Amino acid sequence: MTLVEGGEVLALWLQRLMLRSPLSQQDQDIVRSFPGVIRKVDGTRDIVRLGERTSHVSLVVDGIVARFGQTADGNRQFTAFFIRGDMADLHAAVMPVVSSPLQSTCPTVLYQIDREIIRTAAAQSPSLAKAFWCDCVTESQIGAEWLVSIGRGSALSRIAHLLCELACRYGVMSGERDRFPLLLTQAHIGDAVGLTAVHVNRMIRALRESGSVIAEAGHVTIRDWDLLRRQGGFDPGYLHLNDLDSRSGLHIELELQ
């Protein structure tokens, strides 16, 4: 691991925070100044383990990090995906003992910040504390939406819903909603939506044949947003990407029709 200045990697997270929380220039400068270390992780590697006491939080610079639970017989269920610009375990700043382990799904780069730096910043700035809180609340609401999708959705709708969500989350960073990288195998998707890899393959083929998406060469291209949204029963409100008013200068439109 190499000690580095935050710079561009922290700007990714700051952009995420400001989608939901207005921050002063002073607050922005504080976030951009957070020192940390770069950690490179191979694919399918545990980043933090159950019961471990961690001293840092991890910002995803590149790749995808999955949160998971595991049964006694070793089967894993992914409960969240964290993409470029997401802080994968911000809650560790106040709850350092790991109750939800993290794993890389592909070669991943992290920027790890000492938890005490996050705690100090929150204690000194109520607006930063609120922004961190909003980030954690949104993460919990995404988890709740996943639960409904898996518990009540058909196999096809579960995958369509996940693709819609990833498209929106990547889209606010890149400005391109209709095409995004899919750094997940069919087995990863299956572990997120409660299906076998074979079933995932069939459902992706069904989505392709319906004309809503094309999935190839590590990317998804959305051909018909309205159709994919209906297939997934998807409403982006739970992502809270439209919450700031026009005074913030960061109002993001995610109209899917």
Structure description:
The protein is an alpha+beta fold. The protein has 2 domains: 2-143, Jelly Rolls; 153-248, Arc Repressor Mutant, subunit A (Orthogonal Bundle). Helices cover 42% and strands 21% of the residues. It is built from 8 helices and 11 strands. It has helices spanning 7-20, 25-32, 115-124, 126-152, 155-174, 186-193, 197-210, 225-232, and strands spanning 2-4, 36-41, 46-48, 56-62, 65-70, 76-82, 102-104, 108-114, 179-181, 213-216, 219-222. It has a 4-stranded antiparallel β-sheet with strand order 1-2-8-4. A 4-stranded antiparallel β-sheet has the order 3-7-5-6. The protein has a 3-stranded antiparallel β-sheet with strand order 9-11-10. A hairpin with a 2-residue loop joins strand 10 and strand 11 (219-222). Residues 1-5 and 243-257 have low confidence and may be disordered. It holds the Pfam family HTH_Crp_2. This is Crp/Fnr family transcriptional regulator.
